[in-house]
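2024-03-11 09:14:02 INFO receiving multi-entity request
2024-03-11 09:14:02 INFO entity count = two
2024-03-11 09:14:03 INFO echoing inputs for audit
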Amino acid sequence: MEVITANSNPRIKELNKLNKDAKLRKDRDVFVVEGIRMFRELPLQNVQEVYLSESALKEYRDEFKSMGVLDGRNTWILSDGVFAGVSQTKTPQGCMAVVKCMHYQLDSVLGRNDRETFLVLDTLQDPGNMGTIFRSAEAAGVTAVLIGKGSCDPYNPKVVRSTMGAIFRVPFVMCDDLPGTVEELRRSGVVVYGAHLDGDDLYDIGFPDRVAFLIGNEGNGLTDEVACRADRLLRIPMEGKVESLNAAISATLLSYEVMRQRKRDRQN
Amino acid sequence: MEVITANSNPRIKELNKLNKDAKLRKDRDVFVVEGIRMFRELPLQNVQEVYLSESALKEYRDEFKSMGVLDGRNTWILSDGVFAGVSQTKTPQGCMAVVKCMHYQLDSVLGRNDRETFLVLDTLQDPGNMGTIFRSAEAAGVTAVLIGKGSCDPYNPKVVRSTMGAIFRVPFVMCDDLPGTVEELRRSGVVVYGAHLDGDDLYDIGFPDRVAFLIGNEGNGLTDEVACRADRLLRIPMEGKVESLNAAISATLLSYEVMRQRKRDRQN
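2024-03-11 09:21:47 INFO inference complete, emitting structure
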């Protein structure tokens, strides 16, 4: 295979754009995945292009072959220098792929199980937080993440990296009309909880089988039109002078408390 | 007051260095605090220098005066451009202070209460994680954070910012010999828990009154010499294919479960 040695190569330019430009990702319906761990999680049928550094090719050749990556089609080798230029990390691992976006619909995730937990992200801005929410959500058995307009792009490279692969396993739905989506959850019998200082203490609540939690923006909390649609209000107890918790931390504490209660119920 | 309009001003150069250089912070025994929220949390007796942008001076003049900041001593005004250059944030709020470091000793935080929770950070690297741990620790009523050698500097500007002020309220001890510190915790009767896949399920454990949790490095977990000193092993339950949780998430789930059990015990 030929080795790409110039940053000016059109493929390299396009990769750089895909890493930076949410609109281009949307238009092409693809996103970029980087790193050997994420590589091992890739749904191969969705992979459109693979880029490997010369060093990574040496180190992982057998593994890539057994994954079916090195069959010659749509795989390009980059000099280490060119790879470092296009990499989003400080210590590049030398593998990158262009992958087709996932497209989940609310219908396909709602009402499929007796017990469901939804995380509803209302203008969540920080890519690291969103990625961590995916990772925790999978661990806590969350059914799906619902992402409202004005949130950061789940295909942002930093989100993808922070999910540690969970983005391939946790269904997520892009919601153009988040208030409408919350109404739909409620109509189907899901109890929707919003965070509020006047709410019930999280640890005094016995959660129903089907729940959704509204998670707001890092600085400004929930938007009014989403907050007003909560069925019930809850409060994560906080000591000291803390005014709020990190959004990913809140989402995790809520999901895990539901998980804990369900485990306890199964044991009793 | 004179306005600093040049990036080449020696004070501006020194501020830049303090933001970047952990060794200089240590030598001068100070760190840099930025942002209006953090400003409001400042222990004024520890403030050595204050830097305000011209815009911030206009916006917050009354507040700064009532805080005692604008008494003329050790306060400098920067043009907005110069402030933006030295700021660590994309949208600078125009206030920065050089503050004396805190110096807590283990003796002053250990054995002071019937119920204690310690978080022991073993080579924790990510500034955002460390800051979030401080913020959650305060909310969960953690007694103190013990920081081992090889962890990131708690006075790194990104840590300070992510604590949202908790760095001024949660005691933390710098531990040159973390294994020795863990031994000291145990000798004083604190039960030390380490995370391990073979450990007991977090939600099956009834925690004793005095506990410590070992929190490891983001990529590599605990170092052997710290891990081997745990009294007991525990496991945060995880569904799906998740191999581990984010370090700040783990620390929070552990601290909050202890908090939950103590609240429940008080209620019964």
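2024-03-11 09:21:48 INFO post-check: Chain B has a mean pLDDT of 94.
2024-03-11 09:21:48 INFO post-check: The CA atoms of residues 122 and 223 of chain B lie 7 Å apart.
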